[in-house]
Specification:
The chain is an alpha+beta fold. The chain has helices at residues 15-25, 54-64, 75-84; strands at residues 36-39, 42-45, 88-89, 98-106, 109-119, 122-127, 132-137, 146-151.
Amino acid sequence: MKDQSQPQSKPKRLIKKSYLKCIRNSVGSKMFRNFYLELDDNVFDATKNGELSCAFYVSGLLVIFQLIKTIHGTVDGTIKDLEESGWVKTNQPTPGSVIIWEATLNGEDCNEHIGFYVGRDKAISNSSTKKKIIMHNWTYDNIRKVKAIYSNPILTK
């Protein structure tokens, strides 16, 4: 039995460990497939049923861990929030880094792509064709060039 006269220690949150595990555990998820907006009484799925869900996925996880301020539907909005929230550009990814890939044509849309680096040359992001979260080579086998890598000083501790 524990001595009740001694102060109880409080558990410490392991943000980096939890954050990285959450990213890895998201593979296969369809949770971020739909994000609805309303404009002039017209409701629509801004992520096109999972085709454009990468920013929603990345920003959603970052918000859970309070690493950015709000959820975004665009890569540009997510980048702006990353920069305002203390994320910095770097040349080398480390586990937990956010990667921005150059824009490529996706159907009728030409969009940048965003995801997470998880180590061992792997990244996790939303697949526009599979409409779910997948793991893949972080360089996309040079199909999409890496445009920027962001890291957060909180995650280097």
